[in-house]
Please model this.
Amino acid sequence: MSLLDVEGINSFYGDSHILFDLSMRVERNEVVALLGRNGAGKTTTLNSLMGVVRPRSGTVSFNGEPVHGRQPFEIARRGMQLVPEERRIIGALTVHENLKLAALSAPDAWSFERIYETFPRLAERRRSGGKDLSGGEQQMLAIARALIRNPKLILLDEPFEGLAPLIVRDLVRICGELAAAGQTFVVVEQNVVAALRLATRCYVINNGHNVYEGTPDELRQNKDVMNRYLGV
Ligand SMILES: Nc1ncnc2c1ncn2[C@@H]1O[C@H](COP(=O)(O)OP(=O)(O)O)[C@@H](O)[C@H]1O
Ligand SMILES: [Mg+2]
Model:
């Protein structure tokens, strides 16, 4: 049984049909990259998994249980965490307060020590206000806030967007270490190189259709798919 099993979902915004019979699966301990051009439907896919968007048809099973039609908080309680593109750090709270708030209702939360060991930069910044963080620090906090709840699956929506290459390298390393320690991720990225460095398997989405599935090596060698759908 896969950790996540998505079968033929169709998602809409109003009358606009966005996802067409989209299927995907995520096994425990995988890092699955979801790639595709701007507007392809990647964020809508993550939102459909998390219950932010309700698929009109198809099924989403998480940890052996159907979750389509459930509310985001119910899906979160079952161990899925979305780190949205906008990060949604609470600017008026400190780093530590942001983490504390995230851990609040988690039955099996990580200790702050463990989080700060994973993100030493956040330990240095623990008393800083969320609004005073750099983009990279904000992204670390956004990921840490998801992680502290000890989720079975973390969905990352464009975690590297707008960050300097050195920061991206740092974040890729940290996520790689978390993955090596058993954390399962789905990562949506326009930065194909960084995403493929992390991923164990990938999907390519185009116009709301799943058009490719393969390993990072297979995708790198598939110049046709790389060109047609990813513009690399
Ligand atoms: N809230 C919304 N209302 C209507 N259309 C939307 C909304 N959000 C996204 N879309 C449309 O859905 C399509 C897929 O968007 P999205 O999932 O955000 O793509 P991606 O994340 O791959 O860039 C795009 O055509 C976009 O314009
Ligand atoms: Mg998006």
Observations:
- The chain has two domains: 4-79+152-230, 86-148.
- The chain has a mean pLDDT of 96.
- Residues 42-43, 85 surround magnesium ion (ligand 2) (CB under 6 Å).
- Residues 165-180 form the longest helix (16 residues).
